[in-house]
Write a structure and sequence with these properties.
The complex is a heterotetramer. Chain C is mainly α. Chain C is built from 20 helices and two strands. Helix content of chain C is about 75%, strand content about 0%. Classes of the chains: A mainly alpha, B mainly alpha, C mainly alpha, D mainly alpha. Chains in contact: A-C, A-D, B-C, B-D, C-D.
């Protein structure tokens, strides 16, 4: 048994416990927050270094101990090529959030509790990504809810309460149905063990239960992802959440949904997946186009955070489309799309948070234009992030979209090719619309003339803590874009194993 | 006497008891109606016991116990009714609606009620 | 024919010990000066612990049966099933005793009577769990109920208390009337009062069908009513909110946990032992009841402003969850033993977890509010500022009731019932239960969020803050601590409970194995 | 040497990075990395030409594994042949000249550093397209150019026009690029590899629908990038950017990329004649239409922009009729004379401070070098010997004639007509800009007219030289083609006949004389005024923008508003409504709890009765 994974969960948990239990000065809390999340990242890096990339389809550094034999549940953890990139992303984003908090504390204060919740959130997310037992997965999946709820409800904007409630109720509905789906799988396959289930590849589960389970899982993970039309919690949650909340929500929480869809739904009930894939594909593509239209309307008069939240819906639509193709290419696209979205949208939310800190608004109308003139660094990074987000080839966002569409060009043998080619074409139209609204956003916010309201106001550009938090994401977006092997190479074998 | 006669009678009795429970407003009358229901069961038990020629006389024993239970219930019940009467000066059950789902009263009224007690 | 029965006193040791304690407390109270009233609690606690010891010791032995009839059937069984419930009742009793010390003093409840009634009721429960014939079940049920009526109305001079007691009482006796009538009919159909005998006799009746089978089915339903009332399943739940609100908080805690568990004990014995052949009949009925109970309980709880009423409706909903596993679809003829076992295990496990977390929630309420009739949800706003530990504990219990981490115990509880439902081929019920979990979360979270609402507009502390702070009883804190530790333990490793539930379910199955 | 071909895009990319982030560390400022990067790339490009010289058809490919995709693995690398090397040199030369020119033209611009870095990046992107060995690698360069054009066109982002034009440029080309991406899918999946060589090698083995789909989809991208009808609308608007950028976009990068890709992947198109026909039709429409638009345009730069559209259509037409060599040759000559014309225009604009020809005139006296070089460029554009354009254009027309058939004849005839129109608008341009008297801005202050400094005139002279030299007909037709281009099999051999040249010269001269005569008659007026009301559609560019606005832009925005409304009042309201309904239901159920115990008991009894009856009936059945 390896100690890496227990440490991976233990370090942030200990940090959270310390922060929650021991009263300390704000300064100390910040330091502790950075240290704990930094230590977690170190553990992740050690884990990565020790990872056998040659056998990325195998679950590594496993922990597999008896937990609840009465209901056939084992405490089984492990990482493989599919989860490793997400684990790294999670640890990195959490650290960056902690660093960002050093520079900008939300108005509600109480940094200690904020950081404790962030670390607790990290435990939940990391646990979800390394869980190898459905029930363990489920428990970690649920751990995330309460911290996120309080992040929004206590540190959020004026409409935080309803937004937080909506978030948690939606997500719980999803996860409760997902649990039923797990149990349907269990009823057929007789085990909760994800490796065994993936290995069995749906054997033992009848056709109808497979479809039923897949639909339940689809709703569960679809709400989290979010999949159209189950996305309506997301814009509100993002709009109201504090910056770190938005970053983590977009950066890692949404990934739990798509990860689960790949890891559990597609792998464990393949027959159900095949039958539901056309529906999933259609919903995914509708999401892409729908989100683009919504953003297009929002860019005229709306909230920047809301716009980016909707753009998340669109991006996750591509991820879902990739999954729907049930091909290694599509799923690879989904995975790299996940990571890219985490990096880029995380960065975008950081930047909008930076604007909100400075201008005390994220309304496009009120921000006016000329960000690039007023705060060149912030404006420049926004330009970069927007360009990356619209899927320019050579930047991280491209690969997910491209591979998803490539998967749709030649979907799995059991699926209707004409349908998926139509879906691909519509998704392609979505990429155009995405470009349109992002450029329109830049045109309204980044470029142009500084409005009279801000012309004389002393607005500081990015400070050191901001840059430390933002630049790694920029570099990552570029690196993954130029050298996608960073992600695809890791997950390749695992994805092929999954769809075998 | 045929078994069905006894069973029918018992059912009738039980029905009357249920009607009484639902229709009467006086708490004491309610208690009496409940007694009717229990005795309907007793009638059944005894009749079945005789019909089966039960060597253990389960039905008869059961009926005896029901009588005891009924007595105990009435004892407690009357005591409760008495308390209610002492505090409210009424034993009409439909006036007892202080505990019900209704919108919260303003906090101040709460306090006033508290002080008054 | 020998009518003088030999009695295995070891088997009946727990109820005997507790019954004796009840008498001792009552007598002692007569001689104790008012200043030493606390001693009653000590005696009661000691007696409970002794009974607890017996109850814990019994399952280490082979199953014992006593009060047997010629032919081998016994009225009293001391098996794992019994032990599971007895431990549960006694554990709940201990917590309620801890809770009640301050209540008894502050609300000037008569000490001796209070403890006597409480212990008597629990004695009834201990017997109820072990009873294996209709007569014992009925008598035990009455022993559980009769003291409880008085307990509810024990607060002197409180019109709400007596109203609550009267409602409780009337509801109970009507239910009992229906049950007794049902029992008479069952006797009429089967000619026996023994659960084993009933099962054996019902099987051919069910197989034959016709009017007799219809009558039997009706009788089954009628018998179950009395217990459905105890567990406050919809539509037999109406008494619960009014009664809980009118009763002293510890009594409400008692009713919502131990008393409810007693209802389940009787129900399980009846359904799974006596009426097992009719599983295909009562299964769907229970399923519908479960769905109704969850949904109604949760929906109404959404609109509650009184903390005890809110918890009352929550207990209604929780009862619905516990019924879910029993709503499984089995085929006629007693097949599906594995599914039934899973179902019983699930109900028992949920019940065990529920008792701990619900007691904890009531303990937190008891620690904060003085008079249950006027405890608004708003009174809990910003509790975290005044007492962070209590707020954290309350939040833990609430999230556990909602079935969400950090209250992982509650999550496991939901997990096992959903698992049983899916396993028992009623996935639709599982979906309804899942949807209900969401409604449930809405109100649990509303309260939990209030606790941590430290925003400036809540700085104006609620009007009742004075007594809230003043009230710091060590025993109440002990109750909170015990239940919190229990919840944490069950969150980290529920295996012990799950295992015990499994064994208990197995012992019940054993006695009805075809 | 070809092992080092990766340096070709890498050096300008490095220059861009340094120019963007590290120019403060460089002694001499942002100019240094910009110029050094271009010079370095030019050196590499020249070396490549030398390396492939003599055997240009031989492909030098150096690729390394790039990334797995779950399906076909991707490789990244360089693929150099004669075409790539020569076009590389062309790009580097223009880019270098633009950089040098810009040091003066953009001096004093607060964002010069960013500008120069973006030009470097632009160059790098184009060079990546030139040497890419993998379709996705090519796509990266392809799209990166879209980004650079966006940034550079929008360089003056304080002005509304520049912002709008930048977005328009990016979005319009992006529309085509989406098709391009799908074309890559079609070809790559069909061939089982995204490697250019592999794709072209396996074209014969692919099914015809696949090849046709691939070729047509690729054409979408080409049409977008090379500003052909119907995606030409962005190019005239892109004039909002700094003038050197226009030179870069119109000559060496961006628009050239579209034609280049068709030439590069020519075997694919040859295997799909329908695609070539489509390309030919598009070329015909664009050729004449754009030339007509140029005729009526008053804005000097927009005239040049329309002429670019028209000239690109010539190249496209050439490629469509199998005139591969002629098309590529015209690409090169056009790069020279169009860069020349734009830089000359920049020189003019910088002096007169206006874009409108109606406010110019009489500049030849003050700007002799600019005028002289512009005259060379104009001659080349109009197709007058001895300038390069005359011969390359004739190559295309000859190819069309040789190709024959409906397509060949159409291209030939339209090409000849366009020669006339081209000569006409070129003449008008020279007349209105340089000759006559200086009109000056209406009501504006008089400006001091002067020649531009050496950094600007130098490139002009150099480009003028190219515009002459590249036209030497012997160069490509016999010796040069074999030496420097690897001509794909199945194309028309280049054939420049003096008869053809004579014909075009006569037509062009006729147009020149006609316009000069018109001008003589009324020197103050615009010669196009003779067309009267017929000029209106030309001036409005045949209302294509308006049609798009009504048919596309407005519906999209309306739909966007509808979607947002649907989200708020439909989906979200449904979700919130469900919650409300639950609460409402809770309120309703609450009413049952009215406190009356007999009501409760009635419910209890009713419940029991229902269940008992249901059960009894169910069992009896």
């Amino acid at each position: 048994m390896s100690v890496a994974l227990p440490l991976l969960l233990g370090v942030p948990a200990a940090g959270a416990a310390l922060l929650a239990a021991v009263p300390m000065s704000e300064r100390r809390a910040k330091v502790l927050g950075v240290l704990a999340s930094g230590a977690t990242l170190v553990v992740v890096l050690v884990l990565t270094v020790g990872f056998d990339f040659g056998a990325a389809s195998r679950l590594q550094d496993g922990v597999d101990v008896r937990w609840l034999p009465a209901i056939d549940v084992r405490f089984h953890l492990g990482v493989d090529g599919i989860s490793l990139p997400l684990v790294i992303l999670t640890a990195l984003l959490t650290l960056l959030c902690a660093i960002y908090t050093v520079g900008s504390v939300p108005e509600a204060g109480r940094v200690r509790q904020l950081l404790a919740l962030v670390l607790l959130l990290e435990v939940g997310v990391l646990g979800t990504f390394v869980a190898a037992d459905l029930i363990v997965f489920f428990v970690f999946f649920e751990i995330v809810l309460i911290p996120m709820y309080f992040l929004i409800a206590a540190w959020g904007g004026p409409g935080r309460r309803p937004a937080a409630t909506k978030f948690i109720l939606f997500t719980l509905l999803g996860s409760a149905l997902m649990l039923v789906g797990f149990l349907v799988i269990y009823a057929g396959a007789g085990t909760f063990d994800m490796t065994a289930l993936a290995h069995a590849h749906g054997r033992g589960i009848g056709a109808a239960p497979q479809l039923f389970a897949f639909v339940l899982l689809l709703i569960g993970f679809g709400i989290k992802s979010p999949m159209w039309p189950l996305h309506t919690w997301l814009p509100d949650a993002h709009t109201e959440a504090p910056t770190v909340g938005s970053v983590l929500l977009a950066g890692v929480l949404l990934k739990m949904g798509t990860y689960g869809l790949v890891r559990i739904a597609v792998a464990d009930v393949p027959d159900g997946a095949r039958r539901a894939a056309p529906a999933l594909g259609i919903l995914a593509v509708v999401g892409v186009v729908y989100a683009a239209f919504a953003c297009l309307a929002l860019v005229r008069s709306g909230d920047l955070k809301r716009l980016i939240a909707f753009s998340s819906v669109g991006h996750m639509g591509f991820v879902l489309l990739g999954i729907a193709t049930l091909t290694p290419v599509g799923i690879q696209g989904a995975l790299i799309g996940n990571v890219a979205h985490g990096v880029i949208t995380g960065l975008l939310f950081f930047l909008v948070g930076g604007m909100k800190d400075r201008f005390h608004t994220s309304e496009i109308e009120e921000l006016g234009g000329g960000l690039l003139a007023k705060v060149p660094v912030l404006g420049g990074l926004t330009l970069f992030a927007a360009i990356a987000s619209l899927g320019l080839p050579g930047l991280a966002g491209f690969w997910g979209e491209m591979l998803a569409m490539l998967g749709a060009w030649s979907p799995a043998a059991a699926l209707s090719r004409p349908l998926f080619i139509v879906l691909m074409a519509v998704a392609g139209a979505g990429t155009i619309l995405t470009a349109v609204y992002f450029l329109a956003m830049l045109r309204r916010v980044d470029f142009g003339v500084v409005t009279a309201r801000w012309r004389e106001a002393p607005i500081p550009d990015a400070v050191a803590a901001d840059l430390v938090a933002w630049v790694p994401l920029t570099v990552l977006a570029l690196s993954i874009g130029v050298w996608p092997r960073l992600v695809l190479g890791v997950s390749d074998a695992a994805v092929r194993g999954l769809l075998r | 006497m045929h078994l069905s006669l006894a069973v029918l009678l018992s059912a009738l009795l039980f029905g009357v008891g249920v009607y009484g429970v639902l229709a009467r407003r006086n708490a004491v009358a309610l208690l009496m109606a409940v007694e009717l229901m229990l005795n309907a069961a007793n009638l059944d038990l005894v009749a079945f016991d005789a019909w089966f020629k039960d060597t253990l006389h389960g039905g008869q024993v059961f009926a005896l116990f029901v009588v005891v239970v009924a007595a105990a219930e009435v004892g407690v019940g009357l005591a409760i009714v008495l308390t209610v009467f002492r505090l409210r000066e009424t034993v009409s059950v439909d006036t007892l609606t202080q505990l019900a789902d209704r919108d919260p009263r303003p906090q101040r009224e709460h306090d006033a009620a508290d002080v008054a007690q | 024919m020998r009518l003088i029965q030999s009695i295995d006193y070891a088997a009946i040791a727990p109820p005997v010990a507790l019954g004796l304690t009840a008498v001792v407390v009552l007598v002692a109270d007569l001689f104790l000066p008012p200043a030493r009233r606390a001693l009653a609690t000590v005696i009661s606690l000691a007696g409970s612990l002794v009974a607890l010891g017996f109850a814990a010791w019994l399952p280490t032995q082979d199953a014992r049966h006593t009060l047997c009839f010629p032919g081998g059937a016994c009225s009293y069984a001391a098996d794992h099933f019994t032990a599971f419930f007895q431990l549960l009742f006694l554990g709940a009793l201990v917590v309620v005793l801890l809770l009640s010390l301050t209540s008894v003093a502050e609300e000037s409840l008569p000490t001796g009577e209070f403890h006597f009634l409480l212990l008597s009721s629990v004695t009834g429960m201990l017997v109820l769990a072990a009873s294996r014939d209709l007569l014992s079940l009925l008598v035990a049920l009455e022993v559980v109920s009769l003291p409880a009526f008085v307990l509810v109305g024990l607060r002197r001079g409180d019109p709400r208390g007596s109203e609550a007691a009267l409602k409780f009482f009337l509801f109970s006796v009507v239910s009992t009337g229906l049950t007794v009538y049902g029992m008479a009919l069952v006797y009429g159909v089967t000619g026996t009062l023994q659960v084993d005998g009933i099962a054996a006799a019902l099987a051919p009746v069910h197989a034959a069908g016709g009017a007799k089978s219809s009558l039997a089915a009706a009788a089954v339903v009628l018998v179950v009513v009395g217990f459905a009332f105890k567990v406050s399943a919809v539509p037999f739940h109406f008494w619960a909110p009014d009664t809980y609100q009118g009763a002293p908080v510890p009594v409400a805690a008692f009713l919502s946990t131990a008393s409810k568990a007693a209802g389940f004990a009787g129900m399980l014995v009846l359904l799974l032992e006596a009426f097992r052949p009719y599983a295909d009949v009562w299964g769907p009925v229970i399923a519908v009841l479960a769905a109704l109970t969850m949904t109604v309980g949760n929906l109404v709880a959404l609109r509650q402003w009184h903390i005890v009423r809110l918890l009352a409706w929550s207990t209604v909903a929780q009862a619905g969850y516990m019924l879910v596993p029993l709503g499984i679809a089995t085929t006629a003829g007693g097949r599906g033993a594995a599914e039934l076992h899973t179902a019983v295990q699930a109900t028992l496990a949920y019940l065990g977890i529920y008792v701990v977390m619900n007691l904890g929630a009531f303990a937190c309420v008891a620690a904060v509010v003085r008079h249950s009739p006027r405890a608004g949800v708003e009174d809990f706003r910003g509790l975290a500022r005044r007492s962070p530990v209590l707020a954290v504990c309350f939040a833990l219990f609430l999230t556990a009731l909602a079935g969400l981490p950090p209250g992982v115990a509650g999550l496991f509880a939901k997990l096992v019932i959903l698992r049983a439902a899916v396993h028992g081929h009623v996935a639709w019920l599982a979906v309804i239960a899942a949807a209900n979990a969401v409604i449930g979360l809405a109100y649990y979270l509303r309260v939990a969020a209030l606790l941590f609402d430290l925003s400036s507009d809540s700085a104006a502390a609620p009007a009742v803050s004075g007594p809230l702070v003043a009230r710091r009883s060590r025993t109440v804190w002990a109750a909170v601590a015990v239940t919190a530790l229990g919840t944490v333990a069950l969150s980290v490793d529920p295996q012990l409970l799950l295992h015990a539930a499994s064994t208990a379910a197995a012992s019940l199955r054993h006695s009805v194995a075809p | 040497m070809t092992h080092w071909a990766w340096l070709l895009p890498a050096l300008p990319a490095l220059a861009a990075l340094v120019g963007l982030f590290g120019w403060r560390l460089v002694p001499g400022g942002p100019v240094v990395p910009a110029v050094v990067g271009s010079v370095g790339a030019l050196v590499v490009a020249t070396a490549l030409v030398v390396a492939v010289e003599g055997n240009p058809a031989l492909v030098h490919e150096n690729a390394v594994a790039w990334t797995p995709t779950g399906g076909i693995a991707l490789h990244i690398g360089t693929r150099v042949d004669g075409l790539a090397a020569v076009v590389g040199v062309m790009v580097c030369v223009v880019a270098l000249l633009v950089q040098i020119y810009s040091t003066v033209y953009m001096a004093g611009d607060p964002r010069y550093a960013t500008y120069a870095a973006e030009v470097s990046l632009f160059t790098s992107a184009m060079l990546l397209v030139v040497v890419a060995s993998d379709l996705f690698e090519l796509l990266i360069g392809w799209e990166l150019m879209g980004l650079c054009s966006y940034l550079l066109v929008g360089h003056y982002w304080q002005t509304e026009g520049a912002r709008a034009a930048a977005v328009k440029a990016f979005v319009t080309t992006r529309i085509g690029d989406t098709g391009f991406l799908f074309g890559i899918f079609a070809l790559g999946v069909g061939a089982g590899s995204f490697d250019l060589t592999a794709v072209m090698d396996r074209v014969p083995a692919m099914s015809h629908p696949t090849v046709l789909a691939g070729a047509l989809l690729l054409l979408c991208g080409v049409v977008g990038k090379s500003a052909q009808f119907p995606l030409h609308v962005w190019l005239p608007d892109a004039m909002a950017g700094p003038t050197p950028i226009s030179a870069l976009i119109h000559a060496a990068t961006m628009v050239a990329a579209g034609i280049y890709v068709v030439a590069r992947l020519y075997p694919v198109f040859l295997a799909a004649p329908v695609a070539l026909t489509v390309l030919g039709i598009i070329a015909c429409i664009t050729m004449l239409g754009a030339a007509l638009c140029a005729l009526a345009e008053d804005d000097l730069k927009r005239v040049l922009a329309w002429s670019t559209v028209s000239q690109l259509a010539y190249m496209a037409g050439g490629l469509a009729v199998g005139g591969w060599t002629a098309g590529v040759w015209h690409l090169l000559t056009h790069a020279a004379f169009k860069a020349l014309l734009f830089l000359a225009a920049g020189s003019v604009l910088r002096t007169v401070g206006t874009n409108l020809m109606s406010e110019m005139g009489g500049l030849w006296r003050h700007m002799p070098i600019t005028f002289g070089t512009a005259l060379v460029g104009a001659g080349a554009l109009a197709g007058l010997p001895p300038f390069a354009g005359a011969f390359s254009k004739d190559g295309i027309l000859s190819a069309a004639k040789d190709h024959g058939g409906a397509l060949g004849n159409a291209v030939y005839v339209v090409g000849l007509v366009t020669v006339f129109v081209t000569a006409a608008y070129v003449t008008r341009l020279i007349l209105r800009t340089f000759l006559g008297v200086h009109r000056g801005p209406v009501g504006g202050e008089p400006v001091r007219l002067h020649e531009s400094p050496l950094q600007m005139t130098g490139p002009l002279v150099l480009l003028a030289a190219f515009a002459v030299v590249l036209g030497a007909p012997v160069l490509p037709s016999s010796y040069g083609v074999r030496r420097w281009f690897g001509v794909p099999a199945g194309t028309q051999p280049l054939h420049v006949g003096w008869a053809g040249v004579l014909l075009t010269t006569v037509i062009a001269t006729a147009a020149v004389i006609g316009v000069v005569l018109l001008h003589r008659r009324r020197p103050a007026d615009d010669p196009v005024a003779v067309l009267g009301r017929a000029a209106v559609p030309l001036r409005r560019a045949f209302w294509v923008d308006e049609v798009y606005d009504v048919a596309l832009v407005r519906p999209v925005h309306a739909l966007a508003r509808a979607v947002l409304a649907l989200d708020l009042r439909g989906l979200d309201a449904t979700a919130v409504g469900t919650g409300r309904t639950a609460t409402f239901a809770g309120g309703g159920l609450r009413r049952l709890q009215n406190g009356n115990v007999q009501a409760y008991l009635s419910a209890l009894v009713a419940g029991v009765l229902v269940v008992v009856l249901a059960v009894a009936v169910a069992v009896a059945r």
